[in-house]
What we know:
CATH architecture of the largest domain: Alpha-Beta Complex
CATH superfamily of the largest domain: Ribonuclease T2-like
CATH class of the largest domain: Alpha Beta
Bound molecules: 2-acetamido-2-deoxy-beta-D-glucopyranose
Oligomer: single chain
Keywords: Disulfide bond
Number of strands: 6
Structural class: alpha+beta
Family: Belongs to the RNase T2 family.
InterPro entries: Ribonuclease_T2_eukaryotic, RNase_T2-like, RNase_T2-like_sf, RNase_T2_His_AS_1, RNase_T2_His_AS_2
Pfam family, one: Ribonuclease_T2
Active site: 96, 149, 153
Helix content: 40-55%
Amino acid sequence: MSFIDNVVISVTLQNKNNKSSTMDSNPFIYIILSLSLSNFQRSYCQGLNISFVDLPDWDYLMFSQRWPVSSCIEWEGKNNSNVCNMPKDPDVWIVHGLWPTKTGTDGPNDCNSPIHFDPDQLEPILEDLDNYWTNIEASTKPNSFWAHEWKKHGTCASVLPQLNCVYNYFKKGLELNRKFELTTILADANIVPNANNYTIDDFANSILQKLNVTPQIECLSRKQESFISEIRLCFNKSFDLISCTSVGVEISNCDKKKPIKYLKDIPGVMAKASVDEYYIQPEEIISREEILHKWYTVIKFLIWFTL
Length: 307
Ligand SMILES: *[C@@H]1O[C@H](CO)[C@@H](O)[C@H](O)[C@H]1NC(C)=O
Ligand SMILES: *[C@@H]1O[C@H](CO)[C@@H](O)[C@H](O)[C@H]1NC(C)=O
Ligand SMILES: *[C@@H]1O[C@H](CO)[C@@H](O)[C@H](O)[C@H]1NC(C)=O
């Protein structure tokens, strides 16, 4: 590690205790800090010399982007008091996550990586994360979404040199979001957020035409309709696009009988009281246990009656 890195690290540590006063009273330190921040981040990630041999193997990466309007409908639908934190630019698809996956499974998840979530590494990219890897769920703890993504997926991804630290992992997600701008890709096939009814094929074909691969498409299902919620692209370990269907992923979870909505705004009716119209209420879902319990009662009655 070079001399300048050592200076920067000691300043950073000092800053943790008394951030504003250190900055204000010593502009020289501030300049050094700004000049060397990227250098510091790079050296942090390169300095790692940790064995990852015990981490589970995986085959490909799934990069999931979400449509914020649908994510918000989902979040508000979970509880009437939930409020959304929308990205600054209302027209962008935002990152959900970058998920290492073993063919035929959903994981691995929550790997026992020696690299733990470190929010300090995100400081240089915090604004981009807020805008493009937005935590829709307002009122949850700051960093909780990113900490969750790191813990569940980043820890397993960290075997890959390009994703070997918290900073690199989140930086890569932002880079892919910029490179594969879904708003533009869809708009080129005339799929734009409006009141139209779309189909799975509309979305899948626009990706196929532009990127020459099949994505995975997720919908949020409601009584009468579905909302496009996520579009996922698959990559091999060299970050080359591959068809998600080529690694056995189902093309979509959307109900083929319902039209798919790609809405521009969150409908007021959903944000407020009359959610009943749109949401399947929990009591409508009769659980297995309840059915078993009913049969148990009937059988008990018959035994009592015949004896
Ligand atoms: C909805 O959120 C409120 C406030 O956070 C909480 O008190 C309530 O228990 C939640 N309701 C459900 C069904 O989770
Ligand atoms: C979308 O489909 C629904 C039901 O299938 C229909 O009632 C509605 O008129 C359609 N909307 C548009 C804009 O085509
Ligand atoms: C990824 O795909 C590209 C293009 O098909 C191929 O050249 C490359 O070898 C693949 N990398 C891995 C690690 O599979």
